[in-house]
Amino acid sequence: MSASTPSPGPAQNRNGDRFHARNTANLTAELLVLHEDDVIRHPCQMADISVGGCAVRVSLDRPEEITVAVLRMQDTSGEVDIEVAGRLCWNQQTSVGSNTFGFQFRRLMDPNLIDHMVSAGLVTRRQETRIQLGTPIQVRRAHGKPVLSQATLEDFSTTGVRIHADKELDVAERLLLTTSSGASGSVSVKWIKPCGDQFECGCIFQNLNSARAINDALAS
């Protein structure tokens, strides 16, 4: 596969979408830099990617001298083999001897290539790993709102949860979740959509204590 400029269409609206590297053990990357007459290979680790650029973690001696480079990405199955030219546009030190660099592509990448990487499990929209669960949970709403008689916590992460409820909730509504073990945490509703005869709801934790309480209870 090679990077190319996508044809005009709905996919162009995804230029700003950023996908986080999900399994870096299966996705290898390297920066190819021309130095005098030699091509120097710098192994790097993908952090995230969009059709317009990406962020990579790499150790470089003189990054300010690198104006143009080629980024090559491959997966262990051999289905993904992408080379794209671009330039370093920012850097942030993340550890001793290693920085995270912003790499801007010279041409927009075909969104279908990123779709393929998502399907292969190499990148994901979610920054935090979600743990699938599917367990009953108690949900308390503010006084005066209809009481939920049934709610299921479908998955959770360090930043939020996804639940199914028997009644429609409100975006921005605050809820108090209580697990079967008695642990409680407050969340705020970010989105909701119908799901059969129930409603699917995505929520984020209101504070760190809530996130810890719910995650510790559900992960044990």
CATH architecture term of the largest domain: Beta Barrel
* Secondary structure tally, helices: 2
CATH classification class of the largest domain: Mainly Beta
Number of domains in the coordinates? 2
* Strand elements, count: 15
What's the overall average pLDDT, rounded?
A: 84
Q: What sort of overall outline do the alpha carbons produce when their principal axes are compared?
A: elongated
Strand content: over 45%
Main β-sheet description: 7 strands, antiparallel
Broad structural category: mainly beta
- The CATH superfamily label of the largest domain reads predicted glycosyltransferase like domains
- Quaternary structure: single chain
Return the string of H and E elements: EEEEEEEHEEEEEEEEH
Q: What Rg is obtained from the alpha carbons, in whole angstroms?
A: 22 Å
Return residue spans where pLDDT drops below 50 for at least 5 consecutive residues: 2-15
Q: Going across the major beta sheet, what is the strand order? A: 9-11-12-15-14-13-10
Protein name: Type IV pilus assembly PilZ domain protein
InterPro entries: PilZ_domain
Organism: Rhodopirellula sallentina SM41
GO molecular function: cyclic-di-GMP binding
